[in-house]
């Protein structure tokens, strides 16, 4: 186990390197509003965060990451364009693996810039790639924006698309919804009986809990609307599956996705952005043909990313989590911007893992 003093020294060195790239140092509070995080991630966040309470401020959470408070800070006070860096501890509850850290240091670099998002993506990725090059890590990339564009372009109801978008980052739930909305999965007979009942509340037991009768009936009516809608076509499901199956090098993935785009026009702009990003990365001296690409990458651990995603891993230490990770989170600025938004991309490095692998010197 690397000692904390050494980690802090390495974190300070990395942050200074990011400052040299023009980033402003920020230090978000360790205690964050639980209301904001619950609104973004739902009750699931409680399983991963340490929650406490304050008589005046209500529920608080120990900082599970830096991105949310940095976005809040920028949307309230930041100028454009902007680059930020930070170093400090984050806290994650571990209920399944006692060997994984529940408190560790991150060093981050974030860009808020609206004129050339592909260049910003390339800047962040190349900075991390070059910084970590002495460790010989495996670089993985993906693009959640392609899948979200496919969902937004489906020929189905807005309610269904909203449900699918909400569960993009939960692959099993996403698949269950696709099967249900395409009529591949049978609707339980108990649900059919409920939806066909003209007065489902007639013999209801007394209401217990936070939901009242009107809210319950609203949910039943939403299920009725969904049940009556035409299923998502088999062809659209096949194209979604084809997107999810894309993997290989970036040079191999781009033509595969371009071919799918000829049959699903909704993803064409996202595929064009991928091509522009790869060109910008190549212009910074990195061969896209040597980078891994997986369309599903980032779907289980990067909930606020909605475009380019990346991670760096130690190939000979598969038990370690990502040494660094990041991506684009434009939608997050929209959620937290109170009517304002700006394209944004960034990433974090774990200096403790860097030192565990021998350091960068």
Provide structural commentary:
The protein is of the alpha+beta class and 361 residues long. Among the domains are: 1-114 and 342-361, Bira Bifunctional Protein, Domain 2 (BirA Bifunctional Protein, domain 2), CATH 3.30.930.10; 158-232, no CATH class. The chain is 44% helix and 17% strand. The chain is built from 14 helices and 12 strands. The chain has a 9-stranded mixed sheet, with helices on both faces. Strand 3 and strand 4 (58-62) form a beta hairpin. The chain is globular and about 70 Å long. The relative contact order is 0.17.
Note the gap between the termini.
19 Å
**The level-1 CATH class of the domain at 1-114 and 342-361:** Alpha Beta
Q: How can the largest sheet be summarized?
A: 9 strands, mixed
Mean pLDDT: 87
CATH fold node name of the domain at 1-114 and 342-361 = BirA Bifunctional Protein, domain 2
Number of helices: 14
Helix content: 40-55%
Any low-confidence stretches, pLDDT <50, length ≥5? none
């Amino acid at each position: 186990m690397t000692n904390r003093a050494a980690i802090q020294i390495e974190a300070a060195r990395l942050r200074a390197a990011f400052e040299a790239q023009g980033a402003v140092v920020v230090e978000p509070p360790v205690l964050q509003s639980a209301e904001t995080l619950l609104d973004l991630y739902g009750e699931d966040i409680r399983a991963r965060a340490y929650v406490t309470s304050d008589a005046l401020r209500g529920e608080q959470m120990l900082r599970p990451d830096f991105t949310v408070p940095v976005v809040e800070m920028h949307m309230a006070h930041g100028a454009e364009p902007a680059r930020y860096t930070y170093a400090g501890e984050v806290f994650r509850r571990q209920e399944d693996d006692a060997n994984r850290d529940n408190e560790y240091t991150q060093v981050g670099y974030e860009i808020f810039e609206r004129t050339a998002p592909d260049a910003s993506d390339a800047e962040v990725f190349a900075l991390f790639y070059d910084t970590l090059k002495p460790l010989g890590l495996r670089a993985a990339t993906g693009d959640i924006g392609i899948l979200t564009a496919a969902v937004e372009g489906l020929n189905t109801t807005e309610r269904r698309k909203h449900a699918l978008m909400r569960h993009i980052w939960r692959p099993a739930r996403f698949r269950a919804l696709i099967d249900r909305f395409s009529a591949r999965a049978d609707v339980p007979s108990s649900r059919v009986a409920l939806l066909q009942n003209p007065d489902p509340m007639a013999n209801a037991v007394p209401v217990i809990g936070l939901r009242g009768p009107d809210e319950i009936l609203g949910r039943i009516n939403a299920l009725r609307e969904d049940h009556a809608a035409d299923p998502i076509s088999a062809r659209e499901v096949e194209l979604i599956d084809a997107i999810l199956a894309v993997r290989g090098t970036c040079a191999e993935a781009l033509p595969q996705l371009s071919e799918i785009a000829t049959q699903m026009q909704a993803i064409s702009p996202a595929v064009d952005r991928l091509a522009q990003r790869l060109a910008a990365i190549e212009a910074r001296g990195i061969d896209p043909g040597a980078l891994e690409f997986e369309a599903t990458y980032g779907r289980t651990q990067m909930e606020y990313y909605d475009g380019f995603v990346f991670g760096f891993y130690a190939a000979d230490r598969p038990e370690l989590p990502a040494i660094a990770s990041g991506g684009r989170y434009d939608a997050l600025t929209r959620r937290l911007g109170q009517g304002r938004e700006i394209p944004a991309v960034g990433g974090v490095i774990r200096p403790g893992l860097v030192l565990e692998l021998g350091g960068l010197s």
